[in-house]
Design brief:
mainly alpha, about 70 residues, single chain
């Protein structure tokens, strides 16, 4: 399929399909994690799974940080 054909097909895709397409395109540019970084991610995930209440939801963290950024 040519690039022009891909562009022609975009309007026919569902919202979810377009979102998936965007995510996949962005993933192609992601560099793989080093072994050290991968180990860190796995360790933090394991810690979270062991004690889920130890983490803070993203919205709560944003609320906590907003007042600091305005100072």
């Amino acid at each position: 399929m040519s690039f022009a054909q891909v562009l022609e097909e975009l309007p026919t895709l569902t919202f979810e399909q377009r979102q998936l397409l965007i995510r996949r395109a962005l993933e192609l540019d992601d560099l793989p994690l080093s072994e050290r970084d991968e180990a860190l991610v796995e360790a933090r995930l394991a810690a979270h799974r062991a004690v889920p209440k130890s983490s803070v939801p993203l919205d709560e963290m944003k609320t906590r940080l907003r007042p600091r950024s305005k100072s």
